[in-house]
Amino acid sequence: MTWFKEILGRPAGHIPIGPFLKIPSIEVVEIIKMAGFDFVVFDAEHAMLSVSDLNVLVAMARALDLPPLVRVPNHDYGDMQRILDAGAAGILWPHVSNAEECRAVVRQASHPPLGTRGSGGGMRAGGWGISRDPDVNYLRDGRERVMKIPMIEEIGAVENAETILSVEGVDAVFIGPGDLSLTMGKKPTDPDVVAAVDRTFTIAKEKGVRVATLARGAADARAKAEQGYDFLMVGNDTGLLARAARALVDEIRG
Ligand code: 3PY
Ligand code: MG
């Protein structure tokens, strides 16, 4: 399996793009792979995805060599541990507001000595304990390959970005313009929101932390790639289906 970390910056000029997926369907995962996306983010924060759904979806994405990240619904340990043991290539935590919260989530996703993640090498992430592939190593993969990604998506978190992004073990940051704009009481396109996103981007770059955000369509994705983002989330399955379905009906009805 190709790990998410391996697709970053490879080949030069090809920024990795991935959609948020909200529909519990292996067919959707296949379609996204066929369409040419580089990775997927299963969205268990907003969508009705259970851990059992994620188990199947993650397995499908791995089989298709489409690195699967999972946005978990909260900062708890239990489900996150199961999702990592199911073979997710990384975790995104929504609404990480300060360095203490960031340290807590990164620690629980990291095996000792950095953190407290338990040992479950008999699961998929450990090749069921019998893999003959020398590249499968549960503890090494958990420590070095699994991406730990806090989301900065509140104005308070932007103010704390310097300390959040100094936390040991953070591999990347995702800047959420939607919730950020809500906490600022402004539209995502408002210059103050754009400035807050840019400020976080600059801090991440200064700290050497990879940085991602949501691109609103193709032109925005190209602009953000040009700006120096390391990877981008763009589109989601429900939105793509909804817009295509509505456009077809509108086209027929006039
Ligand atoms: C946000 O913009 O708030 C996100 O969580 C990205 O979808
Ligand atoms: Mg959000």
Task: Give the secondary structure arrangement, pairings included.
Elements: H1 4-7, E1 17-21, H2 26-35, E2 40-43, H3 51-63, E3 68-71, H4 78-85, E4 90-93, H5 99-108, H6 138-145, E5 147-152, H7 155-159, H8 161-164, E6 172-175, H9 177-184, H10 191-207, E7 210-215, H11 218-227, E8 231-236, H12 237-253
Parallel strand pairs: 1-2, 1-8, 2-3, 3-4, 4-5, 5-6, 6-7, 7-8
Helix pairs in contact: 2-3, 9-10
Bound molecules: 3-hydroxypyruvic acid and magnesium ion.
Q: Care to describe what's here?
A:
This protein is an alpha/beta fold. The chain has a single domain (4-253), classed as TIM Barrel. Helix content is 45%, strand content 15%. The chain has an eight-stranded parallel beta barrel, surrounded by seven helices. Helix 2 (26-35) links the parallel strand 1 (17-21) and strand 2. Helix 2 (26-35) runs parallel beside helix 3 and helix 9 (177-184) packs across helix 10 (191-207). It is globular. The structure holds 3-hydroxypyruvic acid and magnesium ion (MG). Magnesium ion (MG) binds next to helix 9. The site of 3-hydroxypyruvic acid (3PY) has 6 residues, from helix 9.
CATH architecture: Alpha-Beta Barrel
The ligands found in this model are:
3-hydroxypyruvic acid, magnesium ion
Structural class, judged by helices and strands?
Answer: alpha/beta
Spell out the helices and strands N to C. Answer: HEHEHEHEHHEHHEHHEHEH
| Strands, count | 8
**Overall tally of domains:** 1
- Biggest sheet: strands side by side, in what order? 1-2-3-4-5-6-7-8
* Straight-line N-to-C gap: 47 Å
Number of helices: 12
Helix content: 40-55%
The geometry reads as: globular
CATH fold type: TIM Barrel
* Oligomeric description of these chains: single chain
Beta-strand residue fraction? 15-25%
The value of Rg in angstroms is 18 Å
